[in-house]
Amino acid sequence: MDKEEIKVTGEQLISKVKELIKEGNVRKVAIKDKQGNIIIEFPLTLGVIGAALAPVLAAVGSVAALVTECTISVERK
Question: With the C-alpha atoms ordered 10, 11, 15, 18, is the resulting torsion angle positive or negative?
Answer without folding.
Answer: positive
